Amino acid sequence: MTTLHLFSRSPLADVDALDALAWVRGEDAVLLTGGAVEALRPGSAAAQLLERLPAGAAVYALAEDVQARCLQPEAAVPLIDYPSFVDLSVNCAKVISWT
Amino acid sequence: MKFAIVVLSPPQAPSARRALRFCEALLAGGHQLSRLFLYRDGVYNASHATVSGQDESDLPARWRELIERHQVDAVVCIAAALKRGLLDEQEARRYERPGAVNVRAPWQLSGLGQLHEAVQDADRLLCFGGD
After folding, report:
1. B2-19 pLDDT tens trace
2. Contact A11, A36 (CB under 8 A)
3. How many beta-carbon pairs under 8 angstroms link A with B?
4. Is cis: bond before B106, omega within 30 of 0?
5. B53, B67 in Cβ contact below 8 A?
6. ipTM of this predicted complex?
7. A33-80 per-position pLDDT tens digit
8. CB proximity A85 to B under 8 Å
9. Closest among A1, A26, A41, A27 to A18, alpha carbons compared
10. CB distance A95–B124 less than 8 Å?
């Protein structure tokens, strides 16, 4: 993986919260945290943005933020804890925080 | 691996708590937190005057504990701090605000140059803001 893209703003609150998904390339990783996990609601406009990511891009979500919202994302999105968040940022060559 | 962490949100924001938990995890994983930098509303995390509710996590206290335990270089952007009423002894004296000191060790007020230096020095830079 080359770049880890961090998102934290909710697409329900800010229409442009996930605009930077346009910069995600194949083999990049996306980590949804905070309100950004709302993009995992099936059928939402934000979920469609995730579906349009290039093949090879991996999407993860911070488990505690998903659980706090009682979301039930598709099994394809791994839910990770903080040690895995650290590992992901180590394994990617760089991190971009789209705050 | 060396991490530089920037916190942009106040202690009430979930993203500030996320930053703290990330820092705890990276240190537990054997990595180095080379600099912690507070910017914009993130500077409120350095306030010694914050009183948290009894049923709430006292984030400023948890930051202080982490910084002291791991001897982290913890910097508060001075321009962002002054305009939000966060002053250390030296700045309170300079701007004649006696009794308004609310930033103390382990935090230090300094300039954006410290962030630039941290970015050059660290292997990874992560910024925590937003929700």
Report:
1. 999 999 999 999 999 999
2. yes
3. 63
4. yes
5. no
6. 0.95
7. 999 999 999 889 999 999 999 999 999 999 999 999 999 887 789 999
8. yes
9. A41
10. yes
